[in-house]
Amino acid sequence: MPVLVASDLDRTLIYSAAALALTMPDARAPRLLCVEVHESKPLSYMTETAARLLTDLGDAAVFVPTTTRTRKQYQRINLPGPEPTYAICANGGHLMVDGVSDPDWHAQVTARLADQCAPLAEVQEHLLRAADPVWVRKHRVADDLFAYLVVERELLDEDWVKELAVWAENRGWTVSLQGRKIYAVPKPLTKSAAMREVARRTGADLTLAAGDSLLDTDLLLAADQGWRPGHGELADTGFAAPSIRVLPDRGVLAGERILREFLGAVRGAGAGPEPGA
């Protein structure tokens, strides 16, 4: 039986320059590989060692990139290793199969959202009315599924985020603050539901997951084994569970550590050897 590895991307496996956390002396910094270019500029990185580990993981297991990014944002990432057959985008709103969104899955998701939570238009209108222009830089809607704000973090009123979370909770939505983005996401829109669907399709009897943010909570809890790094929203809140290993590593080296952990678990399941990298 195959092992399914569903991993968050941003600040879990790939890192912007601001999130690298290169705290070691310059001469000891790891060599980096750029895995995303946006508007002709390098945007996201992983270590070269992590790239080799991910290539080996792709050969040994069903690797499923699992992200809150939209399809367009995901498709500009160029990960090393075999091209994944499956990818989860828009926090589970799109199940990509060979690079194309599965229409039946998307229809199931949109029907569930319409039935279980307040409409996107209501949330979007509230964000436009309530957010302070002093710290908001952009209002965005992602794939007609959820909304997010790009903010100036140093000017942001943290109490406003807490108030937004309470408002959203009463309407079946959840709020997550990640770096410079405040996400408002319907509760039924989950990475875990899409992961279970991929597990069903592939016949995987072991699921592994990693993530750093509140929006990864359901994914980590749904997997047989999970890992979270020493940075991010979950680390800030002290999130832990019996099936989740809390790693001390922070920044881009956490991504490398997570891939080693994945490979160790895959090897332990008899699904393939751990590389010597």
Automatic annotation (TrEMBL):
Classification via InterPro entries: HAD-like_sf, HAD_sf, TPP-like
SUPFAM superfamilies cross-referenced by the UniProt entry: HAD-like (SSF56784)
UniProt keyword terms in alphabetical order: Hydrolase
Any one Gene Ontology molecular-function term assigned to this protein's record: hydrolase activity
Statement: the UniProt record of this protein carries the keyword Hydrolase: yes
Protein name: HAD family hydrolase
Organism of this sequence: Streptomyces iakyrus
Lineage, uppermost ranks: Bacteria, Bacillati, Actinomycetota, Actinomycetes, Kitasatosporales
